[in-house]
Design a protein that fits this description.
It comes from Echinicola pacifica. This is BioF2-like acetyltransferase domain-containing protein. Pfam families: Acetyltransf_6 (PF13480). InterPro entries: Acyl_CoA_acyltransferase, BioF2-like_GNAT_dom. 37% of the residues lie in helices and 23% in strands. The strands form 3 sheets. The protein has a 9-stranded mixed beta sheet, with helices on both faces. A 6-stranded mixed beta sheet has the order 14-19-18-17-16-15, with helices on both faces.
Length: 536
């Protein structure tokens, strides 16, 4: 390959290339010839990303021989970082370049070498490489190998075997859950093909995603990035997002909108389930139905994506492939990454051998920090995330035996089981704790009542019925009501929502009410009606 035919094009010039029919035809031709290509290297994915995210600069590493395109790599910037990433970031599950088996060795060696000379202070991070991407040349080439870091990851796959999946669905525990769901309403597994309908359900999918991922990892992808929904909607319209939902009547209890390559659909895009239906395992049931449907549509695998094969992936996976994470940059950064990985592996081995010793060490660290006056969150308690420093954090309990007359109950609008309201909690340093607590409550069967004002959550109130479990795992013997969040401005009105809720939901009295502040239970003097907002 003649290096004079190799170039790096970025910014507006790269965007202009996206509009060139000649370049698009060359791109599509190389995409079809490349043995390791996935949907994430297609024009539909890459161009849609840059159309939606206009603030990001495209970087194209291009190699030509005459009029033929022999290699193509896509990169983009991330605000405040010198490292370049793959367009789509984590939404692009597989992040490789395009080439052919004949040209790949020369292309990648020259591409990374040229990048280093053009951008000596920048790096490249690709997470994860497409399975089958040839990297031997990179790892052995003396010009680039010292600037290269590679890490292996498992890529679990679920074979779309209808016989095996049907057998799994007929197992006693899953059959019971399906029958219980059918008793709640009309149970349907549906593929979404209408873009208008997909656009209408996107807010629901985004909320369910942010509740689960926020609780587990502190990641609120859709809340933090409003353009994410726009990107997925545009990808759906381009026909590259395979979307299915599991519904009871018209309520979505699980979903998957995954990017589709030639032989498989990837668990990447958005996949959700509602915590209100968690006891029925709707996510697992949905995936089993999805595998059967994918077989009928000619797909061989449902890609469960890298990042470990534990949890639900261990139950669903039938095959394990291996993929690589890649960083190319300064020798100092590469050494740092290898050192970090070495320490991480040592700690992992220590954990496997001596968990009790580690627990003792962590407890000593906690005690030392506590003695120094530092607070440490050890776990999520049935806590009260108070939005004021002068409120008492002690638990007050009152027993409410009767309500005011209906016409004397103050107006207190609220919403029931609104996941959207939970995401309006605005104490950022405690948001994951709050969402985790709320998700577990909903999964255990507790009922949520919320009030919001100007896109802010101002109170979260819970009805804990008899027989359900608390967040600590204890079974409730006597129903009660408690707050998990109360904004300072809501203190004077918190009994109004309690009275309204008990009256409207016909909750039997007497009932215990647990609050983080001392309440006055005097009868309200102002006459007003109850207002209940529909659940979002």
């Amino acid at each position: 390959m003649d290096l004079t035919n190799f170039e790096i094009i970025s910014g507006q010039k790269a965007r202009e290339l996206f509009r060139s029919k000649d370049f698009l035809n060359l791109w599509k031709d190389l995409y079809a010839k490349c043995p390791w290509s996935t949907i994430f290297q297609s024009p539909e994915f890459i161009i849609t990303w840059f159309d939606v995210y206009e603030n990001q600069d495209p970087f194209l590493l291009i190699a030509k021989s005459g009029r033929q395109l022999q290699g193509l790599m896509f990169l983009t910037n991330k605000e405040g970082e010198s490292t370049l990433y793959y367009p789509g970031f984590k939404l692009a599950e597989y992040q490789s370049w395009l080439s052919t088996e004949a040209d790949n060795s020369e292309f990648v060696a020259e591409a990374f070498s040229l990048f280093a000379s053009e951008y000596p202070n920048r790096g490249i991070h690709l997470n994860y490489l497409n399975v089958g991407t040839p990297i031997d040349q990179l790892a052995t080439d003396s010009k680039v190998s010292q600037n290269l870091w590679l890490k292996s990851h498992e890529q679990p796959l679920m074979k779309c075997d209808p016989e095996a999946l049907e057998k799994e669905l007929k197992k006693k525990n899953k059959k019971e859950k399906i029958n219980r769901l059918k008793r709640l309403g009309s149970l349907e597994f549906v593929q979404i093909k209408d873009s208008t309908y997909f656009e209408s359900i996107m807010p629901t999918l985004a909320i369910q995603n942010d509740i689960r991922k926020g609780a587990m990892y502190g990641k609120f992808a859709f809340s933090d990035d409003p353009k994410r929904s726009e990107f997925l909607i545009d990808c759906f319209k381009k026909g590259i997002l395979h979307t299915t939902v599991y519904k009871v009547d018209e309520e979505i209890i699980a979903s998957n909108a995954g990017f589709q390559s030639e032989s498989m659909v990837h668990l990447q895009g958005v996949n959700t389930h509602s915590p209100l239906f968690a006891k029925y395992s709707p996510g697992i049931l949905h995936f089993l139905h999805l595998g059967i449907e994918l077989h009928h549509q000619g797909f061989e695998y449902f890609d469960l994506t890298p990042g470990g094969a534990g949890g639900y992936k261990a139950m669903l996976s039938t095959d394990i492939m291996e993929t690589q994470e890649l960083f190319f940059g300064s020798k100092w950064k590469v050494k740092k990454l290898y050192s970090k990985e070495f320490v991480k592996n040592k700690v992992k081995k220590f954990l496997e051998k001596d968990t009790k010793g580690l627990e003792k060490w962590l407890q000593q660290k906690i005690e030392k920090k506590t003695q120094k006056g530092k607070t440490v969150d050890q776990s999520i308690q049935p806590g009260y995330f108070m939005d004021c420093s002068n409120c008492s954090k002690d638990l007050y309990t009152i027993k409410l035996s009767e309500l005011p007359e209906a016409q004397k109950i103050k107006k207190a609008s609220y919403q029931k089981n609104s996941l959207a309201d939970l995401l309006l909690f605005d104490l950022s340093d405690k948001k994951q704790l709050f969402i985790s607590d709320a998700m577990r409550r909903l999964e255990n069967g507790q009922q949520l009542y919320t009030r919001t004002e100007q896109d802010r959550l101002i109170s979260a109130l819970w009805l804990i019925p008899q027989g359900v479990k608390t967040t600590s795992g204890q079974k409730v013997e006597e129903p009660y009501i408690e707050f998990s969040y109360l904004n300072q401005k809501e203190e004077a009105f918190c009994m109004d929502i309690v009275n309204s809720m008990i009256h409207h939901e016909s909750i039997p009295l007497p009932i215990l009410i647990k609050t983080p502040i001392e309440l006055s239970v005097a009868l309200p003097k102002n006459e007003s009606s109850i207002s209940v907002n529909p659940t979002v």
